[in-house]
Design goal:
heterodimer, A: about 525 residues, alpha/beta, Rossmann fold, 3 domains, seven-stranded parallel β-sheet, globular, B: about 325 residues, mainly alpha, 2 domains, 14 helices, about 75% helix, rod-shaped
């Protein structure tokens, strides 16, 4: 990057963009799979103009981690939890507050486009004279929280409800209050607040909204909330699962589910990376007729020159990805321990940045020391994986959760077999879809999550059988180069946008084939 | 006495808003009754009416006073003060009305505690008409109470086998937040379920629980190292806890080995009071348990056959991974 800002300036564009990308907590500030994908999407559609709305909790002075592509004509930050805190004490509470409370309650518990439109209608009455940030800190907000508490969860502690309400509604109000960049299509990369903003844009402008969901955002939030120690349990349900009394945890989960329903309902097409995700989307209320799969792709030519690792000498395995808990690097280290007992000539790389969660990285290093693996396990940091690939016999992925990991595609393009946990679309990529024709066979081995022994056994079987390793590597290469290419993915998005821009002047420049792809080495 | 004074008097006595209103009304009514009685008396004197005319008028006025007071009474409130007032004005006429109106504040001042008690009594005992604050407090208190009259919660293992998606995810949340070794089987079942949403969550739970178990086991091992021959009961408890941790199958191999060694030591300490069990004997008993667990009955019999310390029986079975 030439300068700190990477060319990003927070300014609403007056010019209408073809596509407005709405993204929460990722691009352009946080590197990772989703951010790399957005960067690829924008650069792979050079004939399309984009604007970007980045939703963040609050201003933190973070620097963009991606250079601004030349076809991005507008950029805007929206802060979800920065809605002012100075209370307004003297203000008449209008009679319509009760109706607004009921509409907000419906939106945060049931959701749907109609509920969102109802909230907008009720809010428009009050915000004619009172800006939303002022309302949020006024006696009207106090009346709202009282009314909603009475409707939703009278069994819970009011004090806890109040702060939960402020967090949930603060984010919602921020998305309802921010100015909308002019665009012909609003494309959100997740449900949640980004999804609500896309739904609002579609309702207000009449333009289509699209959703591309990598992981299932609502499920990720649900897992986080159900396990969170910071959410107080104020209703004592013991271990009963069917107790109908709602508590704060339920309030959060219901709100995210309702926001997802709102987004699914408002979006003209709901895209995901692989078929398994669609089941979750259907459960959460998406319309089956709007669902679509567009797989991620890579540029295989980047890995075409990689030669297979030699059969003799030290056997090398690698985990390629950020050193963060969701990658479960500790299970990889434990698997390396099992392997080291059977195979002394072993090298186990952890290739990826360690600075995102320093504490976790240190725990991993400590585990390496505890298990006496200092000579075997090596943390390389962020490096060019193409340089390492000729040395690697097997790539391992121990992640707890993934959508469609690029690293599997990259290793496949290099002809390196893969051992991965059964997450996201790993099985689909490694073993092939059920409808694959002709069936290519296996490109690696899929194991259960958090099962270091099974992972070690799978890696062992590939390290000790050169023929099998080569066969799996070639199968994976054939599948990746046949299905998962960035050219195909870019073409699919060009068609998707064209379908929804058909009433606009739209020229598809088929001669300009993008040759850019996101890379796992950037932090997938 | 003015009604305002009456009201502020009532406020100082800790009466509720309806109570203050009722107290003010009684003051105004007494003043009205006093004035009406004076008019009646003057009219009877001026018209030279018979005494029965005055008596009928007096009874009518007292009846009107009583009816008005009855209609404006505060629900559930003690009516003895009002009853005594009616009786006094019935007997004493205008003089009694004036005296009661003057005496009422003094009387109430001396009844501070009874008034407060009455207010509390109204709130907690006469719950037929509960005010909003009490209702809120009651509802929140109900939220704090476990519903013991409901059916028993389903075991988590059953939930994992046949529960809905939402139930399985909620159960995993509970396992993550309140892990007990007894939940290990449910967690393992969730880790290999065909439902990706549950599997992903189970993996996250397993990672969290593993970290917590590791700390707990290492703490237990350190505690075991400090125990001596006098800690028999505590040693037995700790050995059971460590055994449960090992049985979850979620520990590192090295931690399992260290925990098993600690268990053997704790069994030896716990057995000191019961019989002459040596450290070697405890270790042997522990190994026998492991042989039984792994189904190596031939090994178990061979070990038993060579055993000189026949007094020591096998300890409880340990289910490792």
């Amino acid at each position: 990057m030439a300068d700190d800002s990477g060319g990003w300036t927070d300014a609403l564009s007056a010019e209408t963009a073809d596509v407005c990308i709405i993204v929460e907590g990722a691009y352009p500030y946080v590197p990772g799979g989703v951010s790399s994908w957005i960067d690829w999407l924008i650069t792979s559609q050079p004939q399309t103009s984009f604007s970007v709305v980045a939703l963040l909790p609050r201003p933190t002075g973070q620097k963009p981690r991606y250079r601004r592509p030349p076809n991005v004509i507008g950029f805007q930050n929206v802060y979800l939890q920065d809605f002012g805190s100075r209370p307004i004490k003297r203000l008449r509470v209008p009679a319509s507050t009760t109706a607004l409370a009921e509409a907000l309650s419906e939106l945060t518990t049931v959701g749907g486009s109609r509920s969102l439109a109802g909230v907008q209608r009720q809010l428009s009455v009050i915000t004619r004279t009172l800006p939303l940030p002022v309302l949020f800190n006024s006696p009207i907000a106090w009346r709202l929280v009282e009314e909603m508490y009475r409707i939703e969860m009278p069994f819970a502690s009011f004090l806890h409800y109040f702060w939960g309400w402020r967090a949930i509604l603060g984010g919602l109000f921020a998305t309802l209050d921010c100015p909308l960049p002019p665009a012909r299509i609003y494309h959100t990369i997740s449900t949640g607040y980004a999804g609500v903003l896309a739904a609002r844009a579609s309702i207000e402008t009449g333009r289509p909204a699209l959703l591309t969901e990598h992981g299932i955002y609502t499920n990720e939030r649900r897992i986080e909330l159900l396990m969170a120690e910071w959410v107080a349990d104020t209703v004592d349900k013991g271990h009963a699962l069917d107790d109908p009394r709602f508590d704060l945890r339920d309030m959060w989960v219901r709100a995210f589910e309702a926001y997802a329903r709102t987004c699914y309902e408002a979006c003209a097409e709901v895209v995901t990376l692989y078929g398994d995700n669609q089941r979750a989307q259907l459960v959460l209320g998406a319309d089956s007729h709007r669902l679509k799969v567009i797989a991620n792709g890579i540029d295989p030519s980047r890995f075409a020159a990689v030669t297979p690792a030699p059969d003799g000498g030290i056997r090398v395995i690698a985990l390629i990805g950020r050193v963060v808990p969701i990658k479960d690097v500790k299970t990889y280290i434990r698997a390396a321990k099992h392997l080291a007992v059977r195979l002394p000539a072993l090298k186990a790389y952890v290739i990826g940045p360690t600075d995102e969660d320093e504490a976790y990285a240190e725990e991993c290093r400590q585990l390496v020391r505890d298990l006496g693996l200092e000579a075997i396990v090596e943390f390389t940091g962020a490096v060019d994986i193409v340089q390492y690939m000729p040395r690697i016999h097997v790539v391992v992925l121990t992640s707890l959760s993934e959508s469609q990991p690029l690293v599997v595609l990259e290793a496949g393009a290099a002809g390196i077999p893969f051992v991965a946990t059964n997450v996201g679309s790993c099985r689909e990529i490694i073993e092939g879809r059920r409808d694959e024709f002709p069936p290519l066979g296996r490109g690696g081995i899929v194991t259960d999550v958090v099962d270091d022994r099974a992972i070690a056994d799978a890696v062992w079987s590939l390290l000790t059988d050169s023929a099998l390793r080569r066969q799996y590597g070639e199968t994976l290469r054939a599948r990746v180069t046949g299905i998962y290419t960035s050219v195909k993915a870019a073409e699919a998005y060009r068609e998707l946008y064209a379908r929804h821009l058909k009433d606009e002047l739209w020229v598809v420049n088929s001669a300009r084939q993008p040759n850019l792809a996101p890379s796992a080495a950037e932090g997938g | 006495m003015s009604a305002g004074a009456n009201s502020s008097e009532a406020r100082s006595l800790g009466l509720s808003e309806p109570g203050r209103r009722a107290a003010g009304d009684l003051g105004w009514s007494l003043l009205g009754l006093f004035a009406a009685e004076l008019v009646l008396l003057a009219a009877s004197y001026r018209l030279n009416a018979p005494w029965s005319f005055w008596l009928a008028g007096h009874l009518l006025l007292v009846a009107a006073f009583a009816v008005r007071g009855w209609r404006h009474r505060e629900p559930g409130r003690d009516l003895s003060e009002f009853g005594l007032t009616v009786l006094a004005v019935l007997i004493g006429g205008p003089a009694a009305a004036a005296l009661v109106a003057l005496a009422l504040p003094l009387w109430r001042r001396q009844r501070v505690q009874p008034a407060l008690l009455a207010a509390w009594y109204d709130r907690i005992a006469l719950s037929g008409d509960i005010d909003a604050v009490t209702r809120l407090a009651d509802t929140v208190a109900m939220g704090r109470a476990l519903r013991t009259n409901e059916t028993l919660p389903r075991p988590f293992a059953d939930v994992m086998a046949s529960g809905s998606l939402a139930d399985r995810q909620t159960a995993l949340g509970l396992i993550a937040r309140h892990f007990s070794p007894a939940y290990a089987d449910a967690l393992k079942a969730a880790l290999v379920t065909g439902e990706p949403l549950v599997r992903v969550q189970a993996a996250a739970v397993a990672v969290k629980v593993r970290g917590e178990l590791k700390s707990a086991v290492r703490g237990g091992i350190a505690q075991a190292a400090q125990m001596g021959s006098g800690d028999g009961t505590a040693a037995a408890d700790l050995s059971r806890a460590l055994r449960d941790f090992v049985a979850t199958g979620l520990l590192e191999d090295d931690d399992c080995v260290a925990a098993n060694a600690a268990i053997a030591r704790l069994v030896a300490i716990a057995s000191n009071g019961a019989g002459p069990l040596t450290y070697e004997g405890a270790m042997r008993a522990h190994l026998e348990t492991e042989l039984l667990r792994s189904g190596d009955y031939a090994g178990f019999r061979a070990m038993r056959a060579n055993r000189s310390d026949a007094a020591a029986g096998p300890v409880e079975t340990v289910h490792g991974r």
